[in-house]
Write a structure and sequence with these properties.
Helix content: 25-40%
Number of helices: 10
Distance between the termini: 12 Å
Largest sheet: 6 strands, mixed
Oligomer: single chain
CATH architecture of the largest domain: 3-Layer(aba) Sandwich
Order of helices and strands: HHHEEEEEHEHEEEHEEEEHEEHEHEEH
Strand content: 15-25%
Strand order of the largest sheet: 1-2-6-3-7-17
CATH class of the largest domain: Alpha Beta
CATH superfamily of the largest domain: Zn peptidases
């Protein structure tokens, strides 16, 4: 075990922070808004090919292709790095060029810097360093750069369907919620609901003769916001607060093109659920609707398939979590906190569809600097090099534990 630790630390020590930062800037400067990840996929493919790491493309319908690379003995258990290339669109309010990758006051600014191009750069660098070390002769590793995470996770779903995770024993996703001070060992699930409200049309001058679907839907919006949500005493979020369910109305649409009482209205609702608890809040929502005693009729359907994200929680005592904690503590001098992510992501898909232990950590920010899906997205450059070294030491130590 000590020999493995020494080897892992030697690999990590060979990683040059300047190289990781430079690679992070290159990734940020290539626009890759979801559905348009093709240029970035080609750039990463060419990097891996230049390093003689035999990348392959995996087509993803409607998006750019995934890029996958693998090395090591084919029958050995595998440790995988997974990260998404896509970003959200450019939000209003940017002061820095969102594709400029400018470094100012120790922060690297750019769309996707936090979510999660600096994480990909750190994983790529660690993956290359491991490949060029002696560990490559006895341990199997995989790198996955996926597309469509900001939509419905189709890139990772495509890898699952293709069998890319076969023989994989652990997955590290490189997104840093809370930075290197935290490891995401679980996530809430997400259930999405279509609610159609059907009233009765009437002339707008005599509304009492009709049933206004918009008015009844608005009453439902209010009650959905006051429903009691379950909490967990054992698990905390990235603000170290006890994790709880939440529910949000994402869309309401009801209209009458003429001077008529609106007879239809549509609601789109998301319910975030806690690991270890049921993923379906359908019964509670129906109970809330009935309590209103409204005149309109309601049709409530929970979306399934790619729209349903199951919660997960990886055992804190697992080799994956313990190896990662040790690597971060060695690199930063502090023990990372174990948290549960509030929003769904590709690790939900991996955990549920494959049953493989998965965690998430990497360069990131906390508090006001954690500008996910916001203008002025940025990462402290002091996080980037340590993240790459932590990936390398964690992966090597973990792979030897699971062989």
């Amino acid at each position: 075990m000590q020999k493995t630790k020494n080897e892992a630390r030697a690999v990590a020590d060979a990683i040059d922070t300047k190289d990781v930062i430079r690679l992070s800037q290159q990734l940020v400067r290539i626009p890759s808004i979801y559905h348009h990840e093709h240029r970035l996929a080609k750039f990463i493919f060419n990097k891996l090919d230049k390093w003689s790491l035999s990348p392959t493309y995996v087509p993803v319908e409607g998006f750019g292709p995934d890029v996958v690379s693998e090395f090591g003995p084919s029958k050995a258990p595998c440790v995988a790095f997974n990260g998404h290339m896509d970003t959200v669109e450019v939000m209003a309010g940017w002061k820095h060029d969102p594709f400029g990758a400018m470094i100012e006051n120790g922060m690297l600014y750019g769309l996707g810097s936090l979510d999660m191009k600096c994480g990909i750069a750190s994983m790529l660098t660690a993956y290359r360093a491991i490949a060029e070390s002696g560990a490559a002769r006895r341990i199997r590793f995989m790198f996955q750069a996926v597309t469509g995470e900001e939509d419905t996770g189709l890139g990772t779903r495509r890898l699952v369907k293709s069998g890319a995770f076969r023989g994989t024993k652990a997955v590290i996703v490189g997104e840093g919620f809370g930075g290197l001070g935290s490891i995401t060992v679980g996530r809430r699930g997400a259930s999405y609901y279509d609610i159609n409200v059907k009233g009765k049309s009437a002339h707008g001058a005599t509304p009492e003769k009709g049933i206004n679907a918009v008015v009844d839907a608005s009453k439902l919006v209010n009650v959905l916001g006051t429903m009691k949500m379950r909490k967990s005493r054992e698990m905390v979020d990235d603000d170290l607060k006890p994790i709880s369910e939440s529910q949000t109305v994402l869309k309401i649409h009801g209209i009458s093109d003429s001077l008529s009482v609106p007879e239809r209205c549509y609601l789109y609702v998301v319910r975030y659920t806690i690991p270890g608890m049921k993923n379906d809040g359908d019964r509670e929502i129906r109970k809330a609707v009935r309590s209103l005693r409204l005149r309109s009729k309601f049709d409530i359907k929970m979306k399934t398939g790619i729209h349903l994200y199951h919660p997960y929680h990886t055992d804190p005592d697992s080799a994956l979590v313990q190896s990662s904690m040790e690597s971060i503590r060695y690199e930063t001098g502090s023990r990372p906190k174990l948290i549960v992510g509030l929003s769904e992501a590709d690790d939900n898909i991996i955990a549920h569809e494959t049953g493989i232990p998965v965690i998430c950590f990497g360069p990131g920010e906390v508090g006001a600097l954690a500008r996910y899906h916001q203008p002025e997205e940025a990462v402290s450059i002091s996080q980037i090099g340590p993240a790459a070294r932590s990936y390398a030491t964690a992966a090597i130590a973990l792979a030897d534990r699971i062989r």
